[in-house]
Each structure stands twice: as C-alpha cells, then as structure tokens.
C-alpha cells in the first residue's frame, strides 16, 4: 500500500498569488462601489449596456442551438429559435435605449419574485417538509408583495438595488482585506 502525502496548506507561492488576487479584487470592488454611490446614473447606464450585451449573446446562443442541435425535436428547435430571436432583439433594443432595459430588468426581477412567491406559498400549503409551513407561506407572501412593488415602481427598485448593492460591495471588499490569509515567506 502506498502512503499518500497530502499537503496541509497551500504552497507559499500559491497562497501569495491568491492573496494578491484577493487584494486586487477587494480594491476594485471598493472603487466600483464608491463610483456607483457617487455617480449612480452613469453606473446604471453601464449596467443597462451590460444587460443588453448579455441578452444579445444569450439570443445568439439560443439561435445557434436551434439551428445546430439536430438531435432535438423540431418543436423544441423552433421554440429555441423563436426565443433566441426575441432575446436577441431585446438585447439590441437595450443597447439603443439603456433606460428602458433597466425597466425590463426590474420587470423580470419582479415577475421572478412573484413566481417564486407563488411556488413557496403553494409548497407551504401542500405541506412541504423542507421548511416550516409558516415560513414558506410568509416568505412566499413577502416575495409576491416585493415583486408587485418592483413591477409598479421599477425605477425606484433599480435605484435601490444599485445603492444597496454598492454599499454591500464596499463592505464585503473591506472585510476581504481584513480577512486575507497571511503572506508567506518566499525564498529568494
């Protein structure tokens, strides 16, 4: 039988590389968070453009799947093609009208929360055993209400998401700097 030696920790060079990466990402996180707090409108435009680009790539991927996945049934391929075209067009529209893409993003979040809430309420009423019944129904009702608020106030929701997200990004980045692994001594 062969004895396997398992290292007790990361090699020193790897630990220092991870440490450097964590420091860099924390500094970038702090800068991005502060920029988002100081200049929220330009930050939202960047988010909107990135959302549009994401939709374009997703649409292209779905269209590629529709035309290349010969093993899928025709109905699924047609569905993928239609969804891909719709998503691609939505992405192009988002790039030319970033403000509207933020509203679309808020609507998608609101609808997602409503559906999640409905699922949780239904699970609670059906007696699901993965969480207490009262908790499922309560959290589901909260998700439904939050989704409705986002649908009716998408601009306020996006602004709130930005502010809260920026603050959390700064806080998490600062915490990362205080919880770094110790630097290892690298032989010269």
TrEMBL record:
One of its GO terms (cellular component) is plasma membrane. It holds the Pfam family DUF308. The chain crosses the membrane at residues 20-39, 45-64, 76-96, 102-122, 134-153, 159-180. Keywords: Membrane, Transmembrane, Transmembrane helix. This is Uncharacterized membrane protein HdeD (DUF308 family).
């Amino acid at each position: 039988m062969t004895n396997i030696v398992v290292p007790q920790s990361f090699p020193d060079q790897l630990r220092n590389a991870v440490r450097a990466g964590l420091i860099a990402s924390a500094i970038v996180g702090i800068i991005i968070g502060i920029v988002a707090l100081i200049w929220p409108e330009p930050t939202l435009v960047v988010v909107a453009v990135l959302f549009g680009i994401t939709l374009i790539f997703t649409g292209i991927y779905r269209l590629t799947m529709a035309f290349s996945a010969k093993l899928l049934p025709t109905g699924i391929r047609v569905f993928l093609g239609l969804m891909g075209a719709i998503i691609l067009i939505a992405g192009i529209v988002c790039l030319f009208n970033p403000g509207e893409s933020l509203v679309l993003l808020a609507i998608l979040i609101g609808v997602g929360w409503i559906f999640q809430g409905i699922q949780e309420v239904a699970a609670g009423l059906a007696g699901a055993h993965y969480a207490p019944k009262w908790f499922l129904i309560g959290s589901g009702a909260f998700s439904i209400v939050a989704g409705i608020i986002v649908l009716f106030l998408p601009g306020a929701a996006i602004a709130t998401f930005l502010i809260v997200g920026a603050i959390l990004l700064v806080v998490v980045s600062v915490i990362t700097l205080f919880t770094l692994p110790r630097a290892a001594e690298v032989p010269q």
